Batch of 3 targets.
Target 1
Amino acid sequence: MSLTLFICFAGLYSQALLPFKRVSVDVSGVFYSVTNWPRSVREWLEDRLTSKEALRQDNESLRSELLIYQSRLQRMAALSAENIRLHQLLNSSKAFEERVLIGELIGITPNPNEHKVTINRGERDGVYVGQPLLDASGLMGQVVLVGESHAQVLLISDATHAIPVQVNRTGERFIAEGVGKLDALVLRHIPNTADIKQGDILVSSGLGLRFPKGYPVAKIASIEKDVTNAFADVRVRPLANLNSSRYVLLLFDAPSTNDIDLILE
């Protein structure tokens, strides 16, 4: 009997303590949460830092790949443009009756007062002093110094250079002089009555026996006339791409055969 009463009393006591046990569970949970907070914060920070570092590495990797692909794309564009220029040069050579030699521009003079370039052709290729040089668009200059495997060329834009020209439309003859600018030449002592127009093409006249006759040299860019002056101020623009051409043609004096003797190697 006494055992039964004890069991009943214990059950009632346990039921009475249940709310307090529930509260104690919550309290212990809060306590554990508070005591674990530093570790949780540390783990959260480590995870964030790891994720940030991984993202940084991924970004660096993507940037590197992008630069690589951009450089490859630029190289492909450069090769494509170079291929186009070579085709233009080869196509222009088909119109020549003279023997021609293809060369490559490999350097420019560091002196800003001189417009000279170096090409990879020399005496062993038959290059000689005074030999005309042109690109796919027009005359560029003439050889002034020849080595065994290289030569130096004076551009028509050099301030010391002058070339006899004639207006392709009328045949009037003048002298085109360099002024030290790659994109400009000048015609001096042009009478106000001269039959010239803006846009007229100037070709080599052949006078002076330095440049062959009939090759494009420049285009008249502007004509300014002053009633108080007997001469007009005429500015012309070279047709050759003096500041960008890389592959060039060297003209030889004597024609070879009816077919063009085009030297590539």
Target 2
Amino acid sequence: MTMGHEFSGTVTALGEGVTDLVVGENVVVEPYIIGPDVAVGPGNEYQLSADMNFIGLAGRGGGLSEKIVVERRWVHPIGDIPLDVAALIEPLAVGHHAFVRSGAVSGQVALIGGAGPIGLLLAAVLKAEGLTVIISELSQARKEKARSTGVADHVLDPSEVDVAATVRELTGGVGADVGFECSSVNAVLDTLLDAVRPAGVVVNVSIWGHPATVDMQKLVLKEIDLRGTIAYANDHPATIALVQQGKVDLAPFITAKIALDDLVAQGIDVLTHHNETQVKILVHP
């Protein structure tokens, strides 16, 4: 298996019947592996189809290969967006889909638990959509990235402050309108349930590798709406537009660029053992 599901590239050849792309055009790919009988396009929740999987995680090539063949339906032209920046459109689309799932609107207050790559890119989407963004994060490097990129209005360290109490102070005692769990840490989920207002929304964005526990009493007594989100569906056009219009600047989230030969030592090992020091490491195959 060739790894890599977050990638951009240049069209080098076109299959029979493909007439709306040109060789030399820069594109990004929704890296889905989905059955050909599954309908895509507006109104179709194809991300929920049976046996859904991803290029680079389940075969069919991957972004770390020199070339890859993909279905036309998953290809999105990016115009003049640079290829390095465009490699981050896939995780940005994850954030966009989480925003859509939340039902949040401009003028509301959002609390993000966890400022890893997805949490930071989600914050960028929320800021672009007119929300006030509060981030809770322990890592010094990630807190600094949230501040330096301007994607957060307030950055809180849960080892230093009571996050839920501080959020209520920042919102006149009401609480956040929406919370996003981006850490797969139970304490973060508990904090979000405390920090959102009554009838607020909590969206679980992270993929958990272990069972979570939910304080159902908090959920019931505050009538909190707990929602899941996975990947994206029809989010790429809107996500690409945010970048093209300058509403989201992805460049600051690229924290290293390495050659394929350095993938293990400067890429995988770093992200496995020192992931708090990097946001996105780009690999050129």
Target 3
Amino acid sequence: MTIAVRIDFVSDISCPWCIIGLQGLEEALARVAGEIEAEITFRPFELNPDMAPGGENMGDHIIRKIGSTREQSAQMRQTITERAAATGFTINFSDDTRIYNTFDAHRLLHWAAQESPEKQRALKHALFDAHFTRGEIMDDSDTLVAVAEKAGLDGGEARDVLTSGRYEAEVRQEEALWRSRGINSVPAIILNEKYLVSGGQPAEAFEEALRTIAAEPVAS
């Protein structure tokens, strides 16, 4: 019997550990295919909601935000790059890499979820790729529309979402909801509204959690 699992994936596209965690989760789901059928819904979380237009240099941002040295910041980026590569995802950090406000990206993700879970998942991957692999300007409307099109979504509709302010209230409400539930860092992956897996965990950690759920007695 195939077990259905609900997965709420709370994350931000400016978070490299989020794509590492997503890659691990998807590998785990591939390992349990036939045993577990999961539907992933991506939930919004902004690491830098007050980021100004145009963003900020990533190295400067990390130094300012957590007080690390430039050497520590560079080492951290190298570690992240290697961890991502081990999952099959390419992160191209450079001295010019920037972090951007991601609110509009979250609005597009909310819209994509109305289209289908598959389209939201495709858009999430496309946004991570645009930000971390290609180093695109993630608070630019033209960039976001192009990313949506690459994910198989309608570019005209995506532009209308961005220019109209659609889903602003819904995204704010979702962000507040997850914070009210104690989510203060990402990624936070909640399985069946019961099990929490935090951080950019490897596939083994997700597989263990999924198999724990599959082994639970079925409620009568």
